Amino acid sequence: MTTPQHSAVQQPPGAVANGTPAIRFAGVLKTYQSHGEAVPAVKRMDLAIAQGEFFSLLGPSGCGKTTTMRMIAGFEEPTAGQVYLDGKDVTGVAPNKRDINMVFQSYALFPHLNTFQNVAFGLERKKVAKDEIKRRVAEILEIVSLTGMEKRAPREMSGGQQQRVALARALVNRPRALLLDEPLGALDLKLRQQMQVELKRIQREVGITFVYVTHDQGEALTMSDRIAVMNAGVIEQLGTPRQIYERPASRFVAGFIGTSNIVEGHVERAENGLALLSYTTQDRVVVPCGSACRPGDKIEVSVRPEKIDMHRGVPPVAATGGSVLSGVVNEVVYHGTSTNYTVATAAGADFTVFDQNASNAEDLADRGDRVFLTWAPQHSYMIGV
Amino acid sequence: MNRVKRQLAPYFLVLPGGLWLLLFFAIPMIAMLSLSLQQGDVVYGYRFTFHWQNYTDAIDGYHTQLIRSLIYAAVGTILLIALAFPVAYWIAFYGGRRKPTYLFLLLLPFFVSFVLRTISWRQILTDEGPVLHPLKQLGLVPDSYHLLGTPEAVIGGLVYNFLPFMVLPIYVALERIDPRVVEAARDLYANPALAFRKVILPLALPGVFAGVLMSFVPMASDYVNSEVLGSSSTTMIGQVIQSKYLVTSDYPTAAALSFILMAVLLIGIFAYARALGTEDVMKVAAR
């Protein structure tokens, strides 16, 4: 189990140390006209992405993450506010004049050009000398393991290979920042996981700022230095993967990142920085709240499924200091590495519990069994605090 | 039994089309070929005599009209590309949800018979028509100036009549271009003009190629536009063939001219296809 992080905002490696942010948004607003009405896609966003950072914009479709990225690239202009690259105001500057490259969703390779010509496209536009182009294309194809594929047309290559051509085509220009728009979405699971590791390695090797747009929380958590979780045009939370997973700032983030059990209740007592919510004589939730809550307050408490212990019969004595909820098992789903239980609790909410299939093959409980769920106070938190 | 059936199925499927081709293409072609080598006259009938002289006579007599037809078709094709590309481009990239409407509007005039439409162009272009009359009244063009009967009128008629045959294939090619590919070019430091030249144009060329095939061939053998909008100095080869068949009943010369026209067009098209019809052309264009 992980220890709780009570420290304030953690900075990613090199986040502030390097001075000017690679990308900065100042009060950026973007609205679209739809049936004569202005529909906001991005609402008053302030954002600073550090040099060399692997930064993810994570959110469901329609949350404004792609619009945000397209404003960095210059394909969309903000309705209000400024975009800065390396401290320079680039608002209104055409995409071809921004020192930024993009890896498009479904790659957008030039179908009439082979691998070499695709990768060389940007350098040719920049009027780089012919042998310099040859050298740099060869070098980048080596990095993405595509040496020998120079003459292949895009349609003669697999999805994974096309993906790497797209990456090489952008990286070969040594941009100030690389934007990636759901670049792994079209690949199958195995290849996707491989490419995640690969992308991270390439980013370390070239040291370029990566801005990664995805709706896949797993992808964002494994690769990013920092993540901005977006919803309805607003950044709901910005932080390291650990901060976002362990301490979601809103109910939306808690629900969107991984699985969360959320239980509501009124504070009965608040002492020693802990709040007590009780439902019956034996069902109670204990949650750290600092000085943020008073008796009578209505609060939401979140706890991750893997932090919960499940017992049949009577809860063990050791758990008496923490939360205890009784309930009935509704569903048992075997997942190989773990078994997932759905429990209807006395607090009213259905809880999900993950149990690692560590040693014995025996399931903890069957459908219809009465069980007790227990967890330590530090494994739960109040949402929005 | 089943296996035999399965193996025969493709042949059964091709049977109707094959019969059609045999009846309405192969047999008439052979009949025409035989006709082009016959000798005689309408009154006493024609006899097959391997009279190859029909061909040399036809070339001697009508090479002017043949070459004129090819020139008109070539000029018409170039004008068509210049006219059709912007239209197709606009519909494909700026048509939005109304694309089908614009395509329909483009095709709308073609629900009227093309002979009728060409005849109405005659009304428009005549000296007393709505174009020349006011211009002459204002003294902007001399009284001796005519539009009808000129090569310009004939080529104009051809271009007008074959516009959709150029717009549609180019539109289809442009429509298939992923807008993100164009954005990728812009992202890779190409300004809008370069993105057009390096990406959109090469990807649209197969459409232009198809459009040229679909318009050049029928324009070269067209006989209506010159008949209605032209004069004796604009006579095209299609008119000659038509009048040989239907007016003077000189079937062998008409058949020989048809074969000559077909041969010229086929050779031209094969040369054109070899030079421009493959993917190489896109690669060349992208340089």
From TrEMBL, chain A:
What Pfam families does its record include? ABC_tran (PF00005), TOBE_2 (PF08402)
Q: Which PROSITE patterns match?
A: ABC_TRANSPORTER_1, ABC_TRANSPORTER_2
Record EC number? 7.6.2.11
Q: Which Gene3D superfamilies match?
A: 2.40.50.100, P-loop containing nucleotide triphosphate hydrolases
Q: Which CDD domains match?
A: ABC_PotA_N (cd03300)
Arranged from A to Z, the UniProt key words for this protein are: ATP-binding, Cell membrane, Membrane, Nucleotide-binding, Translocase, Transport
Q: Which domain of life is it from?
A: Bacteria
* Keyword Chloroplast annotated: no
| Catalytic activity reported | ATP + H2O + polyamine-[polyamine-binding protein]Side 1 = ADP + phosphate + polyamineSide 2 + [polyamine-binding protein]Side 1
Among SUPFAM superfamilies, the record links this protein to: MOP-like, P-loop containing nucleoside triphosphate hydrolases
Q: Molecular function terms in GO for this entry?
A: ATP binding
Q: Which InterPro entries match?
A: AAA+_ATPase (IPR003593), ABC_SmlMolc_Importer (IPR050093), ABC_transporter-like_ATP-bd (IPR003439), ABC_transporter-like_CS (IPR017871), Mo/tungstate-bd_C_term_dom (IPR008995), P-loop_NTPase (IPR027417), PotA-like (IPR005893), PotA_ATP-bd (IPR017879)
Where does the ABC transporter domain start and stop, copy by copy? 23-257
UniProt xrefs under NCBIfam families = potA
Under PANTHER family, the record lists:
SPERMIDINE/PUTRESCINE IMPORT ATP-BINDING PROTEIN POTA, SPERMIDINE_PUTRESCINE IMPORT ATP-BINDING PROTEIN POTA
Can you state the subunit structure given in the record?
A: The complex is composed of two ATP-binding proteins (PotA), two transmembrane proteins (PotB and PotC) and a solute-binding protein (PotD).
**Functional note:** Part of the ABC transporter complex PotABCD involved in spermidine/putrescine import. Responsible for energy coupling to the transport system.
Q: Which family does it belong to?
A: Belongs to the ABC transporter superfamily. Spermidine/putrescine importer (TC 3.A.1.11.1) family.
Per its record, how is this protein called by name?
Spermidine/putrescine import ATP-binding protein PotA
Q: Which organism is it from?
A: Paractinoplanes globisporus
Automatic annotation (TrEMBL), chain B:
Q: Which Pfam families match?
A: BPD_transp_1
Q: From the Swiss-Prot or TrEMBL record, state where the protein is found.
A: Cell membrane
Q: How does it sit in the membrane?
A: Multi-pass membrane protein
Specify the signal sequence span.
none
Specify the ABC transmembrane type-1 domain's residue ranges. 66-272
User: What PANTHER family does the database record attribute to this sequence?
Assistant: INNER MEMBRANE ABC TRANSPORTER PERMEASE PROTEIN YDCU-RELATED, INNER MEMBRANE ABC TRANSPORTER PERMEASE PROTEIN YDCU-RELATED-RELATED
Q: Which organism is it from?
A: Paractinoplanes globisporus
The record's section on InterPro entries has: MetI-like, MetI-like_sf
Q: Which domain of life is it from?
A: Bacteria
Kindly state which keywords UniProt assigns to this record, in alphabetical order: Cell membrane, Membrane, Transmembrane, Transmembrane helix, Transport
Q: What protein name does the entry list?
A: ABC transporter permease
State which residue ranges cross the membrane: 12-37, 70-91, 103-124, 153-174, 195-217, 254-273
Family membership noted in the UniProt record: Belongs to the binding-protein-dependent transport system permease family. CysTW subfamily.
